[in-house]
Amino acid sequence: MTNLDDESRRRIGRLGADALERLEREPERADGIELIDAALGRIRRSMARQSLGRRVLADLGADIDPSLVEVLHAIAGGSANSPDVVSIGVVAQEMGVDPSQASRLVREAVAAGLVGRVASPDDARRSALQLTELGAALVASSRNYKHALLLEHFRDWSEQDLSDFARLLTRFSSIARPDGRS
Fold first, then answer.
1. Higher confidence at residue 73 or residue 180?
2. pLDDT tens digits, residue range 46-58?
3. How far is 95 from 71, CA to CA, in rounded Å?
4. What angle, 0 to 180 degrees and rounded to 10, lies between the N-to-C axes of helices 66-81 and 99-111?
5. Distances in Å between the alpha carbon of 120 and those of 71, 123, 124, 162?
6. What pLDDT score does 79 carry?
7. pTM above 0.85?
8. Helices 133-153 and 51-60 sit at what angle, rounded to 10 degrees?
């Protein structure tokens, strides 16, 4: 267990009291914020378990770590921004992880036949990453299958509710920093 020094204890008390005062000034909005925080907690726990991703991979019969699919999406997204020059650094940035973790995941994706290394067009001494035919098929199939599952989940929502939710969730997602942390 971590011991907190006196300055940290004072800061915790001061910021906590300031936050409570702000929340008490807007009780109606504070109630909504509490509901949002609870919902985000459930989503965060589900995302940590990678429940949807694991289900998609299981249903597709792809016995791989869901993190590898994230690598594939990072390469696909990175190549859309910088064709032919996707590197470990681009994967790390797209995934919001450090380069050593990205490097390990890319090695696993290469070993699984999902990613290939090719000579960089900018510098033949460096390699660029690209999806193999299998990797590209897995990206497309997993994305389409996940969207179909989500479509079924939202089946009872009106088109207007779905549109509003998509717009508001996209707007809310600006809270996340580009490096993947919030």
1. 73
2. 777 788 888 999 9
3. 7
4. 100
5. 19, 5, 5, 42
6. 63
7. no
8. 120
C-alpha dihedral (176, 95, 167, 24), degrees to nearest 10: -20
Beta bridge partners of 119: 127
- Paired tokens of 89: 């650094």
Check the CA dihedral 148-42-94-92 and report its sign. Answer: negative
The DSSP secondary-structure symbol of 91 reads: H
The pLDDT score that the predictor gives to residue 83 is 58
**HSE on the CB side for 30, CA within 13 Å?**
9
Reported confidence tier of residue 182, pLDDT bands at 50, 70, 90: very low
Give 123-173 pLDDT, tens digit per residue.
777 788 999 999 999 999 999 999 999 999 999 999 999 999 999 998 988
Burial class (CB in 10 A: 0-12, 13-18, 19+), 161: exposed
Q: Give residue for tokens 């790390």.
A: 92
Q: How far apart are CA 108 and CA 126, in angstroms?
A: 19
CA separation for the pair 150, 142 (Å, rounded): 12
State the burial class of residue 145 (Cβ atoms within 10 Å of its Cβ: 0-12, 13-18, 19+).
middle
